[in-house]
Amino acid sequence: MRDWHALSQGDPQPSEGALVSRDLLRSIRDGITVVEPQKIAVSIDPSGGGRDTAGVIGGFLGAGNRVWITRDKTKAMSSAEWSRTACLLAHETNAGVIYVEWNFGRDMCTLAIGTAWQALQDEGRIPKGKLMPMIDAVSAKQGKLLRAEPIAQQMVEDRVRLRGAFVDLENEWATWQSTDSDNPGRIDASCVLLYGRIPEVQLRRHRARPAADRAAARPVRAQRPAARGRSAGVWTEDREVSTGPVLLDEVWTLCQADRTSAKSRAALSS
Questions:
Q1: CA–CA gap between residue 90 and residue 41 (Å, rounded)
Q2: DSSP string of 133-155?
Q3: How far is CA 44 from CA 34, 80, 236, in A?
Q4: What is the rounded CA–CA span in Å between residue 192 and residue 102?
Q5: Which range among 74-88, 112-126, 170-184 shows the weakest confidence by mean pLDDT?
Q6: Cα–Cα distance for residue pair 55/57, rounded to 1 Å
Q7: What is the pLDDT of residues 95-142, one digit of tens each?
Q8: Which residues, including other chains, have CB under 8 Å from residue 8's CB and lie 6 or more apart?
Q9: Burial class (CB in 10 A: 0-12, 13-18, 19+), 7
Q10: What is the pTM of this model?
Q11: Among 44, 144, 247, 270, which residue's CB has the most CB atoms within a 10 Å radius?
Q12: Bridge-based pairing state of the strands 160-162 and 66-72
């Protein structure tokens, strides 16, 4: 039963090695709890062409800093189609922001959404006086697996809920693997939504390394040290000196000796 959807599409796929389990996805379905939407948004994973899948997901941030996914309008669409679909979804849900991916087609998305919003207003499908939602670009790490894994962890930690059963969305999360050639539009759009609504997830993935690691990995220009016993990498005037755990006073002495030698050579040559 758990793989019925994949089998019915003639595309059986294993659940082993997927981002999340079907049991987890079933456990985060919640169409009963009363929640007051705080920040409503629409997210887009644009398609590369008319035959490619474009992800369009709607959701909001609720109490407890939890994101609720409420709509899935994902399907194979051209840019003219997904931009209109996203605008209509934003209008229906009264979204205050439309998230697009910074890494791929940011300017194209902004132009397409603005054009679609104006056209829908001209057609009377969106009221003339209604302002278009803000378009915000979310910077997601390149590599679909790398960007999806932190969101899967948010599901495990119960920071994501599904406002009902989303068969196609759940199937994609439960079966997609990094070796698949298909574009996981629903996963990508979900990630864009979560990174936009829970920005600390993005910050956690780009957390700075400890100072000792940075010093060991990247040389810095020497300055007169006030303390002893730190790891350092030092640039002299004409070469790099890579050092392990050393006394910084010794490094300073090395730099001074190197400068003195350079001045002596210059004096002799003149």
A1: 7
A2: PEEEEE---SSHHHHHHHHHHHH
A3: 26, 13, 49
A4: 10
A5: 170-184
A6: 6
A7: 999 999 877 677 889 999 999 999 999 999 999 999 999 999 887 666
A8: none
A9: exposed
A10: 0.68
A11: 44
A12: parallel
